[in-house]
Amino acid sequence: MTLLLTLDDGSVQRALADAVELAREAAVEEAGAEQVGAHAGVHREDAVSASHLFEAAVPGYQGWHWSVTVAAAGPDAPVTVSEVVLMPGPDALTAPKWVPWEHRVRPGDLGVGDIFPTDAEDPRLVPAYLQSDDPAVEEVAHEAGLGRVHVLSRLGRTEAATRWRNGEFGPRSDMARSAPEACGTCGFYLPLAGSLRAAFGVCGNEISPADGRVVNVEYGCGAHSEIEVELTSSVPVAELVYDDSLLDTEPLDNEPSAAETPDGEASDGEAAEAGETVEATAQDEVADGDGSAE
Q: Superkingdom of the source (predicted)?
């Protein structure tokens, strides 16, 4: 961070840049010798002033510097000390930017017993006697006679819808992207009333992570009411196979000739029928697991 001023030796800026020891003495007088470190540079403030920086050896102020501003009224005027302050360096840990107290409360900060009044000029609210641009709100107001003092304006509803859609239970969440179906077709989905009905509802499934929460119609989870799971055996079952590779066939003994007469001997047709019966019996035995005909 060192910035040396390179002007003529007789100039005011040269005199200010050379006043290192004067600036150190002022810093030691302000903070003590143990808290003033090495010289870290000098930078110009204007035509008649410059600031010398010294490393600050202050507990808890790592990266800070003692800034000593020196000034001179003219080339022949003596250099004097204007101020000594502790300033943060580029790597210093600093407090966050100042935020007005009414803007410091963030979602989730409000606890039991806390009071947080609404700004009288909050653009998200409008008087209830004005048209709210929400039929459901106007219907309730008429039924009650007077209705509420304030209702959500179009801006208030738009901000809420944007916040809910971009939140944990919106269509871009990890749960919604991995879900098989969307909330809009789920039996546990309870649509909101009014102008937000088309896009938002409340989950009524105790198994769902969104139970009792406002969800977008495109949100979804694995507890959808219409999901069906096909139940099958986890053990594979082999198909029944008939193996006839081991089937043996044998010709019948004493097969009658065509010249034999039907005097108790088997005819050609009867012999063929007997052969078919033997083969059928052998096949049945193979199917029963015997492996071959007996």
A: Bacteria
Q: What is the pTM of this model?
A: 0.44
Q: Give how many domains the chain has, as a whole number.
A: 2
Over the stretch 269-285, which tens digit does the pLDDT of each residue have?
Answer: 555 555 555 555 555 55
The top-scoring range by mean pLDDT among 82-96, 144-158, 221-235, 238-252 is 82-96
Write down which residue in 66, 88, 110 finishes a domain. Answer: 88
Query: In CATH, what number is assigned to the domain containing residue 34?
Result: 3.10.450
Asked whether residue 34 is assigned to any structural domain, the reply reads: yes
Neighbours of 30 (CB within 10 A): 16
Flag whether 146 is in a domain: no
Query: Does residue 245 lie in a domain region?
Result: yes
Q: Is residue 190 part of a domain?
A: no
Domain final position from 88, 118, 137: 88
DSSP-derived secondary structure for the chain: --------TTSHHHHHHT-HHHHHHHHHHHH-GGGEEEEEEEEEEETTEEEEEEEE--TT-TTEEEEEEEE-SSTTSPPEEEEEEEEE-TT---PPPP--GGGT--TT---TT---PPPTT-TTEEETTS--S-HHHHHHHHHHSS--SEEE-HHHHHHHHHHHHTSTTSTTSHHHHH-SS-GGG-TTEEEPSGGGTTTEEEE--TTSTTBTSEEETT---TT-TT-------SS--PPP----TT----PPTTPPPTT--TTTS--HHHHHHHHHHHHHHHHHHHHTT-SS--
Report residue 58 as tokens: 């202050």
pLDDT in tens, 97-117: 888 876 777 777 777 776 677
